Amino acid sequence: MNTVRVCLLAGVLVCVPLLAVAEPVTLKLHAGKLDRVSTPVFWELPAALRKATGFTLSRVEDGKKVPVQITQDDPPRIMWILGEELKASQSRRYRLSPTAESPPAPAVTCRDNGRQLVVSVGDKPVLHYNHAVVPAPNANEAYYARSGYLHPLYAPDGQILTDDFAPDHPHQHGVMFAWTNTTFEGRDINFWDQKSQAAKIEHAAIGETFEGQVAGGFRVLLLHTDLTAPDGQKPVLDETWDVRIYNVSDGFLFDVHSTQRCAGDSPLTINQYHYGGMAIRGRREWLKADGAEFLTSAGETRANGNHSRPDWVTMSGQLDGRSYDVTMFASPSNFRAPQPVRLHPSKPYFVFAPLVLGEFQIRPGKPYESRFRFHIGQGALNVKRTQQLWQDYADPPQVTLIND
């Protein structure tokens, strides 16, 4: 990198090297084989640009400004939302310029109200993360109290789509990650069934929060604990959730990246079972016969989709005469992808469950990572658009640096 040397006279002559301001670069976004619209785009920053504290981005074809944001990733990336449609095989050029100007007010905010992290796009809430313990509604069942999960999830019109402490299954909490049939140091423990009081999952710490024009979110730490250890409670897994909510125009879109690590020197064996993993619980109103419906990427339903291995699952239903849907996309990088899914035969919940295929272990020094993308929509379910969202997630548009 070029440098500029400034000489100062203060009794002696001192030459201080100063980094030159990085020059703007031109990026080319490739649609690839798919039509693209309203999707997050990422580009890893080269070393020469990583010292910049901010950027501006504009389309080369018309100079239109596009909100851009530096991610919290390591190495850092920039991200923006591809707004206007880009047809398959087409490309679009952008000019990326470092800037020292203060960023504009965030469009996606993450605020702590003392009990929850509340993430909103504009003035619309998207989700809450419960870092404080939420007490069980029935004082005689205090063991159902829980922290460390997402609830509520909102539709764009403000309707709540998830449930907590549902009367039929009070241990199901919004969006949660829990293993069921496990073995730790020779003891059988179940993190899912709180009534057994053999184990617990709880929020441990808030790592960081961030806001911006493109996305906002947080990193949080959770702890999975064995309550049956002979010498008292014993930590089993440390878990990190990285949650990122995007500023898109088509419903709400967010990612959850879970990383589970052994808390000590002992592995955790996840035994074969018919459910357990990343789960979502829908509204109790969807328990009735004409309540929630499930649809998988293969076109299967509640009737024939249990333990199938889809790319995504949509849960949809009506509330106050309006239609809503929540889709969970399971990353193709996940363990045993595409993972089997447990579609409950009568209740509004499903869970991606790799343990259906047999036991496995989470071992010291080998983190277990899971990535999921969620989309929340309202109105008639658009299956074609849902499949497009999956393709954007599994095979995202590519960005290259070009020479002018």
Summarize the structure.
The protein is 3% helix and 48% strand.
Task: Explain the overall architecture.
- The structure is a single chain.
- The chain is built from one helix and 32 strands.
- The chain has one helix at 383-394; strands spanning 3-9, 13-19, 25-30, 39-44, 55-59, 65-66, 69-70, 77-82, 91-98, 108-112, 116-121, 124-130, 149-153, 164-166, 169-173, 175-178, 182-184, 187-189, 199-210, 215-226, 234-246, 252-262, 268-270, 277-281, 293-296, 312-319, 322-330, 341-343, 349-352, 360-362, 368-378, 398-402.
- The strands form eight sheets. An eight-stranded antiparallel sheet has the order 19-20-21-22-31-27-26-25, with helices on one face.
- β10 (108-112) and β11 form a beta hairpin.
- The model is unreliable at 1-20 (pLDDT under 50).
- InterPro entries: DUF6807.
- This is Methane oxygenase PmoA.
Question: What descriptors fit this protein?
Answer:
Immunoglobulin-like, globular, 404 residues, mainly beta, 3% helix, disordered N terminus, 2 domains, five-stranded antiparallel β-sheet, Beta-galactosidase, Chain A, domain 5
Give the SSE map:
Blueprint: E1 3-9, E2 13-19, E3 25-30, E4 39-44, E5 55-59, E6 65-66, E7 69-70, E8 77-82, E9 91-98, E10 108-112, E11 116-121, E12 124-130, E13 149-153, E14 164-166, E15 169-173, E16 175-178, E17 182-184, E18 187-189, E19 199-210, E20 215-226, E21 234-246, E22 252-262, E23 268-270, E24 277-281, E25 293-296, E26 312-319, E27 322-330, E28 341-343, E29 349-352, E30 360-362, E31 368-378, H1 383-394, E32 398-402
Antiparallel strand pairs: 1-2, 3-9, 3-32, 4-8, 5-6, 5-9, 7-8, 10-11, 11-12, 12-13, 14-15, 16-24, 17-18, 17-23, 19-20, 20-21, 21-22, 22-31, 23-30, 24-29, 25-26, 26-27, 27-31, 28-29
